[in-house]
Amino acid sequence: MKTKHLLLSLISAVLVVGYSSAQPNTITPAPLISQWGEQTVELSKPLSLYIAAEGEDFSRLDAAVRQTGINLKSVKRPARRNYLNLLIVDKSEVATIADAEGIAEGYVMDITTEGVTIKATTPAGLYYGVQSLRQIYHKHHALTVGHISDAPRFEYRGVLIDISRHFRTKEFIMRQIDAMAEVKMNRLHLHLTDAAGWRIEVDSYPRLTSYAAWRTPHTWKEWWYGERRYVEEGSEGAYGGYLTKEEAREIVEYAASKYITIIPEIEMPGHSDEVLAAYPELRCTQQPERQGDLCIGKEETFEMMQAILDEIIEIFPSEYIHIGGDEATKSSWAECEECQRRMREEGLESVDELQSYMIHRIEEHLNARGRQIIGWDEILEGGLAPNATVMSWRGEEGGRAAAATGHKVVMSPHGYCYIDAPQDAPYSQPESIGGYLPLEKVYSYDPTPESMEASVAQYIMGVQANLWAEFIVTDSHYEHMLWPRAIAIAEIGWSDPKHKDYSLFRERAIAIVDDMLERGYTPFDLKNEIGNRPESLSPVSHLAIGKPVSYLYPSFYYAPQYAAAGDKTLTDGLRGTWTYADNRWQGFLGRGGVDVIIDLEEVTHIESIEADFMQICGPGVFMPCRVEIWASEDGENYTLLTDIDHEVVVDELPSFKSFGWHGSTEARYIRYKAHRSKYSGFLFVDEIIVK
Ligand code: ACM
Ligand code: ZN
How far is the CA of 339 from the centre of ligand 2 (A)? Predict the structure, then answer.
């Protein structure tokens, strides 16, 4: 990276002559170097278009360049005036671009009064140059003299689309491919299989699509919390679907025409409830109800998975095949006679090693067919397969550990890359899985921060946004969740961190969103963003700041994973954001609810005591059903200030509510007690504000 930058800065020092320093904020992802002059290119006549590519690449580039909107006429040889030339050149001619990094997707574009030249060493590089040209022309309907030298930071810039939880059609997927290509993304990971439905035709196991692809009722929520029934294709009320091989091939070809690779995911051994529903003979011998792990003891499991993968690799030419590997419960394996026999015979000491045994075998099978496996970070448990690439989702630790041992990694930590959380004030957004992940937070992610050792960073291939669809029933909701946050991932994946500037990015993202809206997409309308919970934006000052809090039910203390700032949380002046996972909200799971005493350390005149609670029913967070507030001067004799009853009603959207007392009293000790309702789950409170 350093070498490249040195080279680029030398070259840019030369090129800057004759250009003004003003940089139009036009191209997304932000390019490595762009310099602009004052003059414009004469466009009253068509530009002569020459493309130095053949066959498929010629047609792909020709189609892309015609989408710029620039008036063009094709010519057989590069013209001398009024031209648009796309040239494949030798590395030595474009020392500015990223081949120094081994990523052959860079390009150099010169816009002069004579015409436009885009040079690259590969057709993909030319394609990205054309995308930049399209953005410039689209914004200004003119071309200003300029120079761009550009190349991606990472080779892998991806999105995961989940078509298992709710099926999406070929047409829908292609629309997202269009939008991805425009921001220079190059991998689409299709989550094709999961409990909620199998979504790809497999000839050797036809019940995967005639049965495991259909369910009732249609929303994931009702299905998952109900009976989890699968039904025969074509039966009454059957909801679901699958991609035929023919459709999947069309998607692959369409994506390739935009230099995007489709990575198919076939989940194993967990998340396989639908496989077991269709082929129950692959269950463990003593399998508990509602458990979706394949039996690793049975040879039939390997026969089936390998046969499926053989069909998958015929459809998807991708080097990488995603084999899942996440969240196996591993609960049946310890009891299953056949799994136990396998463990004895193979000398496996734990169920983690049993999973690892399966992943190793699957890797061997795919490697022998020229493919590589990629899997979720759980595949590290029990020993990583020798050539496996890891997709790090539970955080970055798995990714770092894999990279430290020389395995390639795609970073997709849920705190930044799980775009199934709402992106704005939750009350303004459709129902979702909960949390809060605004564009700015996604944009703040850095897969290889300065603090990461170079020996680790060299194995980080890139970054991916994951859009799980449990709560996303409609296509329009899906697009709303995907855009514009996927654009932030595109920019993280492409642009040099030295150009990272959220306000400039946001301006460009708004322009892209507006353009998408005009074209009939349904992105989140960024210009109307409400933003974070106003209370969280600055600390609140009150009488109890820094005062000690004692928790009256030590055995029902706050939950360790939602401790926030521990005993200091409720009097630290910091109010919570829209999500309880922000280390500001404190979570209580015990039967005792919240029961705390604040010691103001001296008798104080008090006029109000209040605390906010949040409710988000999906993950089991509820309002209290009753709040009592007591006060005392001596810590022995308490007076009840208020006793509030609250009817807890299950609803779809998150809500926030204050429970408090207003009046006038003298007290040193305050007891705040919030009772849990009949719904089991969490109480979350951020601050007890005393004034
Ligand atoms: C995952 O979110 N279970 C990969
Ligand atoms: Zn078993």
Answer: 4
- What local confidence, expressed as pLDDT, does residue 11 receive? 42
Q: How many helices (H) and strands (E) does the chain have?
A: 18, 27
Beta strands in 360-400, from DSSP E residues, in sequence order:
372-376, 389-392
Q: What is the pLDDT of residues 242-299, one digit of tens each?
A: 999 999 999 999 999 999 999 999 999 999 999 999 999 999 998 877 889 999 999 9
Does any ligand 1 atom lie closer than 6 A to the CB of residue 376?
yes
| H-state helical runs in 27-105 | 55-66
681 HSE (CA, 13 A, CB side):
18
Task: Return the half-sphere exposure (C-beta side, CA atoms, 13 A cut-off) of residue 7.
Answer: 15
Q: What is the CA radius of gyration of the chain?
A: 29
* Better pLDDT: 13 or 612: 612
Residues around ligand 2, an ion, CB closer than 5 A: 284, 295, 297, 336, 338-339
DSSP 534-583: GGGSS----TTTT--EEES-GGGPBPGGG-TTGGGGGGSSPPP-S-TTSS
φ and ψ at 500, to 5 degrees? -65, 120
- Tens-digit pLDDT profile for residues 319-342: 999 999 999 999 999 999 999 999
Q: How far apart are CA 438 and CA 529, in angstroms?
A: 9
Task: Say yes or no: CB of residue 416 within 6 Å of ligand 1.
Answer: no
Ligand (nearest to CA of 375): 1
Taking 70 as the threshold, does the pLDDT of residue 459 lie above it? yes
The pTM assigned to this predicted structure is 0.93
Question: Judging by beta carbons within 10 Å of its beta carbon (0-12, 13-18, 19+), is residue 647 exposed, middle or buried?
Answer: exposed
pLDDT at 90 over 90: no
Hunting for tokens 């500037």 — which residue is that?
501
Rounded to the nearest whole angstrom, what is the distance from the C-alpha of residue 284 to the centroid of ligand 2? Answer: 4
305 close to 266: Cβ distance less than 8 angstroms: yes
Q: Three-state DSSP class for 49?
A: strand
Q: Give the nearest ligand 1 atom to 326 CA.
A: 3
Per-residue confidence (pLDDT) for residue 97, from 0 to 100: 56
CA 298 to ligand 2 centroid distance, Å: 7
Lookup: tokens for 401: 């550990």
Contacts of 217 (CB under 8 A, 6+ apart): 223, 226, 237, 239
Q: Which residues does 95 contact at the CB level (< 8 Å), separation at least 6?
A: 7, 11
Question: Which ranges in 368-501 belong to alpha helices (H)?
Answer: 397-404, 414-417, 439-443, 454-457, 475-482, 485-494
Amino acid present at 280:
P
Q: Helix (H, G, I), strand (E, B), or coil: what is residue 409?
A: strand
Ligand 1 mean position, distance from CA 326 (Å): 6
CA distance 652 to 217: 18
Using a 6 Å cutoff on CB, does residue 198 contact ligand 1?
no
First to last CA, the chain: 55
- Check pocket membership of 326 for ligand 1, CB cut-off 6 A: yes
C-alpha of residue 471 to centroid of ligand 1, in Å: 15
- Give the pairing type, strands 83-88 and 549-551: unpaired
What domains are defined for the chain? 2-150 (3.30.379.10), 156-528 (3.20.20.80), 534-690 (2.60.120.260)
Nearest to 577 by CA among 659, 480, 656, 484: 656
Report d(CA 646, CA 625) in Å as an integer: 5
